[in-house]
# Entry
Amino acid sequence: MLLCKINSSLFYLILLFSLKVYSQELYPLTEPASNMAAKSIGIRLNYEFMPSATSPHNLTYANSSTMFRTSVEAMIGINKKWMAHAIIFSSNMHQQNFKFEGGGFYLKYRLFSIDNIKSHFRIALYGKGALVANKIHVNEINLGGDNSGLGTGIILTQLLHKTALSATFGYIKGLENINADILENINTDVLNYSLSIGQLLLPLNYVNYNQPNFNLYCEFLGKINTNNKENYLDIAPALQCILNSVFRIDLVYKYQLYGNMTRLNTRTISLRLEYNFFNAYK
Amino acid sequence: MKSLKIIIIIMLFFTKTIKAQYIKVELQAAGLTCSMCSKSIHKQLKTLSFVDSISVNLDKATFILFLKNNQTIDFIAVKSKVEDAGFSVASLKVFYNFNKFNLESNSTLSYNQSTFNFINTKSQILNGVIAFKLIDKGFVNAKEFKKYATIIKSNLEKNNYNVTL
# Structure
């Protein structure tokens, strides 16, 4: 019986490999263990739209109208081992008006790398932080604009026979927001994890750098609060278009698969625009 | 005066016919499939002063470097550029125009301040354009390097490379 199961999984694995699909690891919502090129700079604009009344809880203090957040992110490849991001957030999620919320940083170190033709396995460590001026409402500690805090974790990315998978395991410690109430009844220790899959739809054959690339992604993102065991798991299918090998457009629909954590929203539509400058400085 | 003109013309003719020994360098990068990744390598390689132009095969992640004449080619810099882009060199082949070069075991070829130590080759006469491959650490994958590690006598130094046919 077990042998039969192994055989059938092997069959699917072989089938998957024989499809010869190119895959990508420029995941819309998570970072791969690979770094951006040294001395390159990227600018990312992120627009998140959250349809109203998506929260499973009656959060009367949250903005009753449609919520949206925009963020501007600058990314830099310091050298082949280190890269960094800086980000600022604005939203109407915590009050009626659209307002500047604060900023954050992200640092990634490429720890381990095995490269082969069209394949690699990489491990990276990251550290991130955010400092925002929102009033804390919910138990979902995130460093994406809602909460101040610090986070760290490990990323493992495997590109094998044109199939790319990436997993992240991390820990986030929520800290007090600027001018906010003390963290009452808020559990601030969160474990986060994710699994991301990506594949190239077009072009079928690479000929030059000007061909538009279309990539399909599916990401699973989860959190567990270590104190009260509240948790959730989101799924985020996404379509990505890369123009001229430098301009990236992501369209993402993220929604909750299951969960019992108090959250501001459980559905988000994101549009991301990113432009990369290679050899941006000497 | 007329004879001087003829001498100048003859000299010009000879300068034009003296061929550069390096014909091209073929580099295959490892660890990538996407065009954005390939473009980052391409942009890095373009910053090398001795590279004249680059032709790319995106599907095979192969870059053909055409070199400027009479320049010292720093192959370690080529490798560093690929690594700066976030990837590795899978293979680096130098297409060289040999002129009846007598290759024996442990032969050494010197050209424009670069020295190439031939390893694991049979005795033969090399004539015409023939490719040799760098086998130092970082110029082949880790598995292949292990194969050569025991027979390489000198460590990788600037302008001193271990190669095989």
Residues 203 and 213 of chain A are 6 Å apart (CA to CA).
